[in-house]
Amino acid sequence: MFYFTYFLKFLKSLIWGVLRSVRILATLFWRVIWRGVVSTTFVLACNSRLRLRNIRQINMESDDECELDSTWEEECENKTPRKKNYKKRSRNMSAAKDMQDFRHSCRNLGDDDDNDDEDEPGEGHFYNLDFYHGQIKSSPDEVHIDEFHQTWKGQYHWLEDCHSYIQWLFPIQERGVNWDAHVLTKKEIKAFRKDEEAKRKLVESYKLMLDFYGIRLVDETTGEVDRAPNWTDRFRNLNRYTHNNLRITRILKCLGTLGLQHYQAPLVKFFLHVTLEKEQLQRVKQSVLDYFMFAVLDKSERQELVRFAFKHFKPQEQFVWGPKKFLSGEVDSKNEENKDNNTAEHKEQMETDEITNDVNEIHDNNHVGSIENEINGEKDQQAADVQPVEMGSDKDNKDEHDSDDNSPCNSGDNDVKKNQELSDSDAKKEGEVQCDKRLASHLC
Fold first, then answer.
1. Do 256 and 206 meet the contact criterion of CB atoms below 8 Å apart?
2. SS3 string of 40-88?
3. Global confidence as pTM
4. Is a pLDDT exceeding 60 seen at residue 368?
């Protein structure tokens, strides 16, 4: 019995030892596996972060943003790219890509060709245009367009807390958070642009949201805006809830898409003035620079906005939304200087050529005059040589005629006289030809 009890204790301790060893080995195994997984995950995460950083950010010194925003592409197409230094301030390239895609989507919207969107969904039923005509209500709120303009105006809590109406009031070609709303199709955009009543109601929706943000529309023709009387409270709300930045971006896209582009630049310049000059709405500032500016479709207006932003941005050496060599006027001044130098050199060359031509003309005139004098002297000399021969022959012929008037040799003498005259005339012509050849060779 004693040995049996001892054997059971030994077996029990052996089993517990084996189990303990297995547990230790399993713990060590899982620790090694876990550390390997964590290390691998960490390395992959770091690499992904670096790649994402390479994709989304850009060095302020490289001026590569023109590859996406196209604001300065004509001026930057021959630039030499430089290495990026990511320790410095960088631009959000995801935003730049988004705005480039938007601008490209608005190309050729004014054309009458309807063959470019044959495969678009919802063809033949324009939901957004029907909504602005009052034929359907928004979904899921079930609100009529006129009810929005009359009942919702001034209801700031509704406008702030509800997130499903903005896609109906300002439709664009992109999906929003409200999946009951409909994106714009190319045909619907073209039809909306030609519908003055729908565009008039769209301007009313624009006024509704401007009032919500503490802004008022001063001039519908130019699109000029200014602060509303209640701007202090509304600016505080706008600066607090940054999701309104997305709404403003949507509003700017909608205005440009549906033919109200002249409202874009004044609103963006207002926000630039408030955020950069007045130093208000600091939580809106980044969206103004990344998104609002580059939602403006007109390229010249967009360039002016970037120049305005560069002028009032502090510090200027950290401005990354445009090539500073153009914004600072360095290139323009160099081009102007080169233009002036080229003009001065051109004038100097013209004066030099004019003087050279005058000298050559004078030289040619003197040379031709000397050649003509030489030719005239040769002609006089030839005439002097021919004249005695003619006088002698005339005298001999006269004497022969007087003495031998009826002589049979008169016919022969007359032939000799004619031959002499022909030879003299041929010699004279030959001399003139030789003189003309000499004159031509000298002139050449």
1. no
2. HHHHHHHHHHHHHHHHHCCECCCCCCHHHHCCCHHHHCCCCCCCCCCCC
3. 0.60
4. no
